[in-house]
Amino acid sequence: MLIDASDYPPLKQPAQQWGAAAKSAAVAGATPKQRIAVLSSYSRSLTNFRLELLRRLVEAGHSVVAVGPEQDEEVVNQLAGIGVEFVQTSMARTGLNPLTDLATLWSYWRLLRTRKIDVVIPYTMKPIVYGGIAARLAGVKRRYFLVTGLGHVYSDAASKRWLGRRVKQISILLYRLALKGAGGVFAYNRADTADIASCGLMSDLRDLTLVPGSGVDLDHYAFSQPPVGRPVFLLIARLLKDKGIIEYAEAARLVRQQYPEAEFRLLGQYDPSPAAISADTMAGWVKDGSLTYLGETTDVRPHLAECSVFVLPSYYREGIPRSILEAMSTGRAIVTTDLPGCDETVRDGVNGYLVEPRNARQLAEVLCRFLKAPSLVAEMGLRSRELAQSKFDVHAVNKLLLDRMALL
Length: 408
Known about the structure:
By secondary structure, the protein is α/β, with parallel strands linked by helices. The protein has two domains: 223 residues, Glycogen Phosphorylase B (Rossmann fold, 3-Layer(aba) Sandwich); 160 residues, Glycogen Phosphorylase B (Rossmann fold). It is 42% helix and 14% strand. The chain contains 16 helices and 13 strands. The longest helix is centred in the middle third of the chain and has 18 residues. It is globular and about 60 Å long.
């Protein structure tokens, strides 16, 4: 179910609830130049998902450092092109090794102290937890957190397992330490705002704001008419089981039994996670004709332009999936799961369909609707573009964020 505009704070009005540090800055008049650190768990996400936010901070006159664990020269150069310095820090994206995580905490603390950072903006779990704690220890007064998704540990499935419950308890403690005294916490979906409140992750809920994801650049991901002819379905995601890739492959096999002309494409990089899809599994799908694997790319736009329908059968605890927003902006019908984050991008039967997670047969049945009624492809694609324009414009989202942070 898509969030109505009334469920979000007004995008063009100043914030009514700020943290104390932000209020003080606003009272002082024009926002002075700040030294800002944006902390990520994956360096490429800085350019894939945060480039416009970083650009807006620089345009507002601030000195910005972008922090990530991988030294990616393409990322470094792209950030330098907009006036942002990249700094590499120690972090293991996956795993719970306490020594590794302590090294991450130390790395953040040293960076924040030596750079005399005024404002820290972490996103995703490890940067939020260890960046938030490090910022408190380093005396950074203004701390703003982008909760892009609380993750699988907060899902109902994880709560049914003993280990899942223990990990959740630990994460709650860490979040409370990190978010204490936050100037603002920005959650991407209603389920996460509810969990933040019910689990007591932050002390003052007046500083909790629901925002419509990271937004999407409507010009960069320009509208295009879907191709005519052979139907092409596309999934873009890291190659993780939780992204619904196994269900996608099984649905492809079922659909192609009735419609052998349908093509199912998969674009995304292999992941080091234990929950990753193996190269051998992928090779099997390609060999039997279920999937066409496209590898990975730094520019998804040509692939979006070539597809008829975008599919993300994820059961990962998403924020609001950026891949779906990009497909919506391009003007593609969406098929995704009826789960937090994903469900906020689709009006069922209007710009796409919502399906049950882990249900390949239902997914196949829904995908067949586009093959039985090809006019749905263009009709729903147009509705997707309209929703992207009205709710997910990156410039409106960034203005909301930076207004609330008093950084404009």
